[in-house]
Write a structure and sequence with these properties.
- This protein is of the alpha/beta class.
- It has one domain: Rossmann fold.
- Helices cover about 35% and strands about 10% of the residues.
- The protein is built from 5 helices and 4 strands; from the N terminus they run H-E-H-E-E-H-H-E-H.
- The chain has a 4-stranded parallel beta sheet with strand order 3-2-1-4, with helices on both faces.
- Helix 2 links the parallel strand 1 and strand 2.
- The longest helix is centred in the first third of the chain and has 23 residues.
- The termini are far apart.
- About 15% of the residues are buried.
- The mean pLDDT is about 90.
- Bound molecules: S-adenosylmethionine.
- S-adenosylmethionine binds next to helix 2.
- The site of S-adenosylmethionine has 16 residues, from helix 2.
Length: about 140
Protein backbone atom coordinates (compact mmCIF):
# COMPACT_ATOMS: atom_id res chain seq x y z
CA UNK A 1 0.00 0.00 0.00
CA UNK A 2 1.24 3.50 -0.87
CA UNK A 3 2.50 5.62 2.03
CA UNK A 4 0.27 8.47 0.86
CA UNK A 5 -3.50 8.40 1.08
CA UNK A 6 -5.58 9.22 -1.98
CA UNK A 7 -6.53 12.49 -0.29
CA UNK A 8 -2.87 13.41 0.14
CA UNK A 9 -2.06 12.47 -3.47
CA UNK A 10 -4.87 14.72 -4.69
CA UNK A 11 -3.76 17.54 -2.38
CA UNK A 12 -0.13 17.36 -3.53
CA UNK A 13 -1.12 17.10 -7.20
CA UNK A 14 -3.28 20.22 -6.96
CA UNK A 15 -0.55 22.10 -5.08
CA UNK A 16 1.96 21.09 -7.75
CA UNK A 17 -0.40 22.07 -10.56
CA UNK A 18 -1.03 25.47 -8.98
CA UNK A 19 2.69 26.12 -8.48
CA UNK A 20 3.64 24.89 -11.97
CA UNK A 21 1.01 27.10 -13.57
CA UNK A 22 2.20 30.14 -11.56
CA UNK A 23 5.71 29.35 -12.76
CA UNK A 24 4.49 29.07 -16.37
CA UNK A 25 2.49 32.33 -16.21
CA UNK A 26 5.66 34.18 -15.20
CA UNK A 27 7.72 32.39 -17.85
CA UNK A 28 5.41 33.38 -20.72
CA UNK A 29 4.62 36.91 -19.51
CA UNK A 30 6.66 38.64 -22.20
CA UNK A 31 5.81 36.21 -25.00
CA UNK A 32 2.72 36.58 -27.18
CA UNK A 33 0.70 33.62 -28.35
CA UNK A 34 -2.32 31.45 -27.63
CA UNK A 35 -2.73 28.99 -24.77
CA UNK A 36 -4.05 25.43 -24.97
CA UNK A 37 -5.99 23.50 -22.34
CA UNK A 38 -6.12 19.76 -23.01
CA UNK A 39 -8.93 18.34 -20.88
CA UNK A 40 -11.69 20.82 -20.01
CA UNK A 41 -13.35 18.47 -17.50
CA UNK A 42 -15.36 20.59 -15.08
CA UNK A 43 -13.52 23.70 -16.25
CA UNK A 44 -11.53 24.34 -13.06
CA UNK A 45 -8.12 24.77 -14.67
CA UNK A 46 -9.66 26.61 -17.61
CA UNK A 47 -11.20 29.06 -15.12
CA UNK A 48 -7.75 29.49 -13.52
CA UNK A 49 -6.07 30.06 -16.89
CA UNK A 50 -8.57 32.67 -18.06
CA UNK A 51 -8.32 34.62 -14.78
CA UNK A 52 -4.53 34.74 -14.90
CA UNK A 53 -4.24 35.17 -18.67
CA UNK A 54 -7.20 37.40 -19.49
CA UNK A 55 -5.73 38.74 -22.73
CA UNK A 56 -4.87 35.33 -24.15
CA UNK A 57 -6.78 33.27 -26.69
CA UNK A 58 -7.34 29.98 -24.83
CA UNK A 59 -8.12 26.96 -27.00
CA UNK A 60 -9.82 24.19 -25.05
CA UNK A 61 -10.00 20.52 -26.03
CA UNK A 62 -12.13 17.70 -24.64
CA UNK A 63 -14.31 14.94 -25.97
CA UNK A 64 -17.33 16.42 -24.14
CA UNK A 65 -18.25 19.73 -22.55
CA UNK A 66 -18.91 18.90 -18.90
CA UNK A 67 -17.77 22.23 -17.49
CA UNK A 68 -19.59 24.15 -14.79
CA UNK A 69 -22.01 26.71 -16.14
CA UNK A 70 -19.73 29.54 -14.98
CA UNK A 71 -16.60 27.96 -16.47
CA UNK A 72 -17.69 27.75 -20.10
CA UNK A 73 -15.07 28.52 -22.74
CA UNK A 74 -15.73 30.68 -25.77
CA UNK A 75 -17.60 28.26 -28.10
CA UNK A 76 -15.37 29.41 -30.97
CA UNK A 77 -12.31 28.20 -29.03
CA UNK A 78 -13.82 24.94 -27.72
CA UNK A 79 -12.79 21.92 -29.80
CA UNK A 80 -14.87 18.85 -29.01
CA UNK A 81 -13.79 15.35 -29.97
CA UNK A 82 -10.83 13.06 -29.42
CA UNK A 83 -7.67 15.13 -29.09
CA UNK A 84 -5.91 12.70 -31.41
CA UNK A 85 -8.16 14.20 -34.11
CA UNK A 86 -9.02 17.71 -32.92
CA UNK A 87 -5.46 18.83 -32.10
CA UNK A 88 -3.97 17.89 -35.51
CA UNK A 89 -6.96 19.56 -37.18
CA UNK A 90 -5.91 22.87 -35.56
CA UNK A 91 -2.23 22.50 -36.43
CA UNK A 92 -2.40 25.02 -39.24
CA UNK A 93 -3.76 27.64 -36.84
CA UNK A 94 -1.70 26.84 -33.76
CA UNK A 95 1.57 25.19 -34.75
CA UNK A 96 4.57 27.21 -33.64
CA UNK A 97 2.42 29.83 -31.87
CA UNK A 98 1.29 28.18 -28.62
CA UNK A 99 3.14 29.60 -25.59
CA UNK A 100 1.58 27.38 -22.94
CA UNK A 101 -0.24 24.05 -23.07
CA UNK A 102 -1.74 22.57 -19.92
CA UNK A 103 -2.43 18.86 -20.31
CA UNK A 104 -4.93 17.60 -17.75
CA UNK A 105 -6.25 14.47 -19.39
CA UNK A 106 -6.46 12.42 -16.25
CA UNK A 107 -3.37 10.33 -16.92
CA UNK A 108 -1.12 9.52 -13.97
CA UNK A 109 1.32 7.77 -16.26
CA UNK A 110 4.70 9.49 -16.70
CA UNK A 111 5.41 7.78 -20.05
CA UNK A 112 2.04 8.82 -21.43
CA UNK A 113 2.65 12.40 -20.24
CA UNK A 114 6.09 12.38 -21.79
CA UNK A 115 4.63 11.32 -25.16
CA UNK A 116 2.23 14.25 -24.99
CA UNK A 117 5.12 16.63 -24.31
CA UNK A 118 6.45 15.90 -27.82
CA UNK A 119 9.95 15.30 -28.99
CA UNK A 120 12.60 17.92 -28.42
CA UNK A 121 11.15 19.23 -25.16
CA UNK A 122 13.23 19.34 -21.99
CA UNK A 123 12.22 19.28 -18.33
CA UNK A 124 13.16 22.60 -16.72
CA UNK A 125 13.91 22.86 -12.99
CA UNK A 126 10.70 22.50 -11.04
CA UNK A 127 9.42 25.16 -8.62
CA UNK A 128 10.96 24.56 -5.20
CA UNK A 129 9.22 22.43 -2.63
CA UNK A 130 7.11 20.29 -4.97
CA UNK A 131 6.84 16.58 -4.57
CA UNK A 132 8.11 14.36 -7.37
CA UNK A 133 5.62 12.72 -9.67
CA UNK A 134 2.67 15.05 -9.09
CA UNK A 135 2.84 17.30 -12.13
CA UNK A 136 5.31 17.68 -14.97
CA UNK A 137 6.78 20.72 -16.68
CA UNK A 138 8.23 20.67 -20.19
CA UNK A 139 9.81 23.47 -22.18
CA UNK A 140 11.00 23.83 -25.74
CA UNK A 141 14.66 24.89 -25.64
CA UNK A 142 15.15 28.49 -26.84
C1 LIG B 1 -9.08 15.14 -15.25
S1 LIG B 1 -10.30 15.71 -16.38
C2 LIG B 1 -9.84 17.38 -16.65
C3 LIG B 1 -10.06 18.24 -15.42
C4 LIG B 1 -10.12 19.70 -15.76
N1 LIG B 1 -8.83 20.21 -16.22
C5 LIG B 1 -10.65 20.52 -14.60
O1 LIG B 1 -9.88 21.32 -14.05
O2 LIG B 1 -11.82 20.38 -14.26
C6 LIG B 1 -9.77 14.96 -17.87
C7 LIG B 1 -10.59 15.33 -19.11
O3 LIG B 1 -9.86 14.92 -20.25
C8 LIG B 1 -10.78 14.45 -21.23
N2 LIG B 1 -10.02 13.54 -22.09
C9 LIG B 1 -9.22 12.50 -21.72
N3 LIG B 1 -8.68 11.91 -22.80
C10 LIG B 1 -9.16 12.59 -23.89
C11 LIG B 1 -8.98 12.44 -25.30
N4 LIG B 1 -8.20 11.48 -25.79
N5 LIG B 1 -9.59 13.31 -26.12
C12 LIG B 1 -10.38 14.28 -25.62
N6 LIG B 1 -10.61 14.48 -24.29
C13 LIG B 1 -10.01 13.63 -23.45
C14 LIG B 1 -11.88 13.78 -20.45
O4 LIG B 1 -13.09 13.78 -21.18
C15 LIG B 1 -11.95 14.63 -19.18
O5 LIG B 1 -12.97 15.62 -19.26
Amino acid sequence: MSTLSRLEKTLFRLQAQHACLAHAFAAIASRPGPVVELGLGLGRTFDHLRRHLPEREIHVFDRVNGAYEDCQPDPALLHLGEIEETVPALAGRLAGRVVLANADLGSHDRDCNRQLALEGFEEPPRPAGLREGCYYLYRRPA
